[in-house]
Amino acid sequence: MIKAILVFNNHGKPRLSKFYQYFPEDMQQQIIKETFQLVSKRDDNVCNFLEGGSLIGGSDYKLIYRHYATLYFVFYVDSSESELGILDLIQVFVETLDKCFENVCELDLIFHVDKVHYILNELVMGGMVLETNMTEILTRIEDQNKLEKQEAGIAAAPARAVSAVKNMNIPQQIKDIKLPDLPQAIKDLKF
Amino acid sequence: MALKKVKGNIERMFDKNLTDLVRGIRNNKENEAKYISQCMEDIKQELRQDNLTVKSNAVAKLTYLQMLGYDISWAGFNIIEVMSSSKFTLKRIGYLSASQSFHCDSELLMLTTNMIRKELNSQNPYESGLALTSLSCYISTDLARDLSNDILTLLSSTKPYIRKKAVLMMYKVFLKYPEALRPAFPRLKEKLEDPDPGVQSAAVNVVCELARKNPKNYLSLAPIFFKLMTTSTNNWMLIKIIKLFGALTPLEPRLGKKLIEPLTNLIHSTSAMSLLYECINTVIAVLISISSGMPNHAASIQLCVQKLRILIEDSDQNLKYLGLLAMSKILKTHPKSVQAHKDLILQCLEDKDESIRLRALDLLYGMVSKKNLMEIVKKLMVHMDKAEGTVYRDELLSKIILICSQNNYQFITNFEWYITVLVELAQMEFGSKQGHVIGAQLMDVCIRVQAIRSFAVAEMAQLLEVYTSTSQFTIMQEVLYAAAWLCGEFVSELQKPEDTLLSLLKYKILPQHIESVFIQNIIKIFASVMEKYELKEQYDDILRLCDLVTEKMSESIKSGELEVQERASTSLIIMKIVQEEISAKKTMGNTKILDSDEPLEGKSVMNPEATVAAELLSLFNGELNPVAPKAQKKVPVPEGLDLDAWINEPVEESDSESEPEFTENLFVKTDKGRNEKYQQEPTEDDIRRSREARKYEQQNNPHYLKGNSTESSNGNGREDIENIPVAELDLNVPLKVVGHKRSDKYLKTSTDKKKSKKKSKKKHRSESSSDENVQQEFTVEVKRDMELPEGATLSDSDSDHAHKDDPHRALDIDLDFTPPPGPNLISPIIISAANQNKRTIKLKKRRNTLRTSRRRKSPVRKRARRGERRAPVNIKKESLLVVDKENEEKGQTKIKKVKKEKKEKKKSKDKEGKSKSKKHGSRGYEEALGISTPSKEFQ
């Protein structure tokens, strides 16, 4: 069983947290913090397994992680999971993210944490591995996205317009509008 | 009015969505908390609106805030509202939020039952899939009971996507509602042969999890799994199956024999490391369970060890780690085959990776011998200096102690060296629990090894002296506990007991249990010092010491801890008695008026048995032996004693209320809290009744300080001196004489760490060169016996280490997590086959309740019991296995072909992958994430 899946960046800021066993919020934060401290001081060329997270589980639990550029992907698993298998699962997860976001980067995870959750839900369900075949996973995700788009249709138009307007960042654009240099223009005027 | 509504709608359009929230938080890094609390207000506002879209927007934001550590349980009702939306988009938001914030104890879950049921039966597979995924995170017992039938129906859905999720969901249902297991089991079994590989894999996954809790129920499925193992090419599923077999083989050795061959084939053929590793693991499990009687048993072990060596030698740290992990399993049963690779393991101790070092440490205890022990420990001590994390340090310490103390110090040739090591360890920094370990070890060595006592005691006296005289000296306080006890107990070995006594008397603030030990042992040493003086009739010296002790004790008697108080006051009284006796003697000696009973000759002829000191010493008479770890449990309950029966009928509440009144009389200090609590005035009658009850109880309670004696001795001790039954003391005990055997050459000042380090290093060298000499010099005898109650034997007390890595330990410990025993957990076959099941179930229930206490029953008995019940299953399974054999052989040839092709393809791919993945670290971020190598093992 997988007990928890955590994604955080090089500074320990959580980007995704999924606990398959209940922990109150403050405890969750402590776990993230502790995990970050354990993982961050390890070099990149050491093994990807760690024991000794004191907050989850006990001796049966292992921490399996991968470090990609600015992000750590950490899985807390018990002894019924294969260590190398989980490492591959993390790889599948990241590659799926990469396909869905097209060259995924930390910003994608920051702004679309909900989508990341939806993707993760196609891989792992309730702490058990649901699917490891990437094509299957991608079809499921795309199908559901289509479903959302259909629903959006006309109803979402105003909302989309609003967000488009927001994204335009009007104040900045107003600042950026270049007006011709007036005094010069005045001088240039020829009577 | 209408205008207002329109206006409201337009305003809402400009509400912040999730992206805005995230952006806002990023822009307000300085006052994030303030910004978020502002957003929370907005969200609360939004949740009050009627529009579901607005609400869902708010809920999406809440989900994000939950990740940052904000409690959002207050919005539970709103989340449910969003979940009930008819739109998939909104529903998704609601269900996601629910899965993040709900848990099985949420009261709101009651409201969701019907909604989730509707969703599960939805026409749209994604809607029911969504509900299943979300439900799996917070299913409660009630939900499991109410929805189990709906989920069971989904098992036969036409869509594999739903079947797959439903299968996994069933496991969660079983956990919360074990009664569902029995009816669902046949369906689950069907799913093992589902046409869709995903569903198959999910079913295997679930059975594997179930088998962790109670493997024997799933033995009947072995043939199906065997078939799957030989036909499937899905590595993920193969791994799970092989892991499952690893759990089943200990229960059924015949299964193991069948497995060896296909597993060895897999080991040879597979290119996936994960699969290879799991195969080795299971082969090891098989070999352990059948242990012998296999034709090519040794060959299989050899194969495993060889493959593991390749893993350990690999440059990939992960493989190295796993190789060591698997090695430690072999070590338990076949230490010799592992010992051949000692070089490799010692090399791993030097690895820069802590995880790997830890694993190598685990293996170390199988690697030591008399010859290399000192060397290895020296290496570990060097590591100890370098190590940063306390986890690793603690592990190092416990491993040093483990390897040195294993088999009653079998490998230690020089105990002085070991004591020095322990003392050095005591001066390092560890986690809080480690001091106790060192202390216990010091005491254990001294008790068991008589020859080392004088050296150890000298060492301890030194420690105490340095500790009390300087303030910078750091040492673990728990070690002081051992030091004080050892000095007191083996006072005869002390060279300068008086000095030690003085340094003990200078103790500073200590934890209460240590302070009590100090007090107790001060008296012990005092008694022995006093004896010496008394024989020489140096009464003034005794009186001077008395004053010193009394002074310290009157400080300690003010302690807040009862234990310290009690010991201090006892000591004070003893001192008082001694003082009086001695001053009496002194005046007698001075005036030369001697009792007619005592001999009149000179000083030296004084009868040693008539001294006050002898009386005092008799208090501490007799040797203390190590007690076997389970001795207490083994004390048989005397016949006719019912520990559960009330001694007195429980007295009503008034009893506990009137308690403070009594304690006030008994102890000087009373608890304030208690006094405040005591408000109701009990009636005269109540008090009388409860007083009687208590008196009766006190009389029967051996641990109770009898009120009378304490009072009188506290109050007017002078009168009581005569009453103290001095005459009854046993005076036939031979006197302890201060020993002269001390080996002075080992005395050294260990004030600063480095100095002692150097010395010990020197010692290593000199000792290793003259190992034989040392051995001859000390014919060290280690006491191996431990005290046990009569009739009990040590045989069935297992060591805890043996069970540490047992993968099924969870079965025993996690009792509340295990589905309760009963008919449900026994697989249908067993039930149908065993008519006597009712009796078995009863037995099982009882066993479960007793499990914690009985966990370590002798294996023979366990097996016997298991055998009884398993019998009917075996017969059936055996026949199934025979049928399978033909299929199995056909299957294998097929697989081999397929695999060969695959292998070649993979080889080329792997090469690409490796070269790419190696560059990860140095490359830019986007590139690193954009690797397009297909996952090696699951494609």
Q: Topology of this protein?
A:
The complex is a heterodimer of chains A (191) and B (939).
Chain A: E1 2-9, E2 14-19, H1 25-40, E3 49-50, E4 62-68, E5 71-77, H2 83-101, H3 106-111, H4 113-123, E6 124-125, E7 128-129, H5 134-152, H6 157-168, H7 170-176, H8 182-188
Antiparallel strand pairs in A: 1-2, 1-5, 3-4, 4-5, 6-7
Helix pairs in contact in A: 2-4
Chain B: H1 2-13, H2 18-27, H3 32-47, H4 52-67, H5 76-83, H6 88-101, H7 113-120, H8 125-138, H9 141-154, H10 160-176, H11 181-191, H12 197-213, H13 222-231, H14 235-248, H15 253-269, H16 273-290, H17 297-313, H18 317-333, H19 335-339, H20 342-348, H21 354-364, H22 373-386, H23 390-409, H24 415-426, H25 434-448, H26 453-469, H27 477-489, H28 497-505, H29 512-535, H30 539-556, H31 562-591, H32 612-617, H33 631-634, H34 654-657, H35 659-666, H36 672-677, H37 684-700, H38 707-715, H39 717-723, H40 753-769, H41 771-777, H42 801-804, H43 809-813, H44 828-833, H45 837-854, H46 859-919, H47 925-929
Helix pairs in contact in B: 2-3, 3-4, 4-5, 4-6, 5-6, 6-8, 8-10, 9-10, 10-11, 10-12, 12-14, 13-14, 13-46, 14-16, 15-16, 16-17, 16-18, 17-18, 18-21, 21-23, 22-23, 23-25, 24-25, 24-26, 24-40, 25-27, 26-27, 26-28, 27-29, 28-29, 29-30, 29-31, 30-31, 40-41
GO cellular component, one term (chain A): cytoplasmic vesicle membrane
Protein name (chain A): AP complex mu/sigma subunit domain-containing protein
Membrane topology (chain A): Peripheral membrane protein
Please describe what this structure looks like:
The complex is a heterodimer of chains A (191) and B (939). With 191 residues, chain A is of the alpha+beta class. Chain A folds into 2 domains: 130 residues, Beta-Lactamase; 46 residues. Helices cover 51% and strands 18% of the residues of chain A. Chain A has 8 helices and 7 strands; from the N terminus they run ββαβββαααββαααα. In chain A, strands 2-1-5-4-3 form a 5-stranded antiparallel sheet, with helices on both faces. Chain A has a two-stranded antiparallel sheet with strand order 6-7. In chain A, α2 packs across α4. The longest helix of chain A is centred in the middle third of the chain and has 19 residues. The radius of gyration of chain A is 23 Å and the shape is globular. The longest helix of chain B has 61 residues. Chain B has 47 helices and no strands. The C terminus of chain B is likely disordered. Chain B is an all-alpha fold and 939 residues long. In chain B, α16 packs antiparallel against α17. The relative contact order of chain B is 0.06. Classes of the chains: A alpha+beta (191), B mainly alpha (939). Chains A and B meet through β2, α1, β3, α2 and α3 of A and α2, α4, α6, α8 and α10 of B.
